[in-house]
Design a protein that fits this description.
Pfam families: ECH_1 (PF00378). This protein is an alpha/beta fold. The protein has helices at about 30-45, 65-70, 75-95, 110-115, 145-150, 155-165, 170-175, 185-200, 205-215, 220-235, 235-245; strands at about 5-10, 10-15, 50-55, 100-105, 105-110, 120-125, 130, 165-170, 180. Helix 1 (about 30-45) packs parallel to helix 3 (about 75-95), helix 3 (about 75-95) packs parallel to helix 4 (about 110-115) and helix 5 crosses helix 6.
């Protein structure tokens, strides 16, 4: 069985972790297959958003500690594993296409890093998300030490990372880590509400905006970079379509060009 399965709904690609017997704990094949699916989505010319989710009882329970505890990995294999996790989170954060994490059950450690990397996080109210690394003598990855404080503030990030405790989906929304918390039975519908908007909006505009909000631009430079981006956008077919649709009082039909 593949560690990751995919399916498409219109312009939305669903990437589903497929190790339910291990609560979708991450291993090298899961990272490799996720990375390949993300890269293909960015280049296939038809995907406008990606949804990450998990089969079975959890989104992703983090590192497969059973595999780690076996002591069978060489130093090279350990390095490859760590860098694969970093590449997956970096790809999610840097790719032009918006990514939605749909979280149920557990998003722990590496799973929380993947969910935090997404542009949108929709979580079940009773799901648990957390970074237990300091409590088990390891370290966080996925850019969390920079990204988490930007999402929840420095003091809340210190609490989440240094205490190592799990929080519920409802608390994740209250602190700014998640966009929405809903009953688990409504999770797919809540995600679909977001993806329907993302698939309808202008792909080029969203790509440029995503890059901008994920980049720390000095205040003195931001006005120039925004102006350059706007002028570039104004040369696209989608910009002209948006202007015409507004004038004609109709819904725009964006092509991504």
């Amino acid at each position: 069985m593949p560690e990751v399965v995919t399916h498409r709904e219109g312009h939305c690609l669903h990437i589903v972790f497929n190790r339910p017997e291990r609560l979708n704990a991450v291993n090298e094949p899961l990272y490799q297959q996720t990375l390949a699916a993300l890269r293909e989505a960015e280049t296939d010319g038809q995907t406008r958003c990606v949804v990450l989710s998990g089969q079975g009882r959890a989104f992703c329970a983090g590192a497969d500690l059973k595999a780690h505890g076996s002591g069978q990995r060489s130093e090279r294999e350990r390095t490859e594993y760590v860098m694969l996790g970093q590449e997956v989170c970096a790809q999610i954060q840097r790719m032009r296409i918006p990514v939605v994490a749909q979280v149920h059950g557990y998003a722990i450690g590496g799973g929380a890093e993947i969910a935090t990397s997404a542009d949108f996080l929709v979580i079940a109210e009773d799901a648990m998300i957390g970074f237990p690394e300091s409590a088990i003598g390891t370290y966080v990855g996925g850019g969390v030490t920079t990204r988490l404080p930007r999402l929840v503030g420095l003091r809340k990030a210190a609490e989440l990372l240094l205490f190592g405790r799990r929080i519920s989906g409802a608390e994740a929304v209250r602190c700014g880590l998640a966009n929405a918390a809903v009953p688990q039975e409504g999770l797919a519908a809540a995600t679909a509400n977001i993806t329907s908007i993302l698939c309808a909006n202008a792909p080029v505009s969203m790509a440029v905006i995503k890059a901008a909000i994920n980049t720390s631009t000095p205040p003195d430079d931001v006005f120039r970079t925004e102006a350059r981006a706007l002028l570039d956008i104004m040369r696209t077919d989608d910009w002209l379509e948006g202007v015409r649709a507004f004038a004609e009082k109709r819904t725009p039909r964006f092509s991504g060009k």
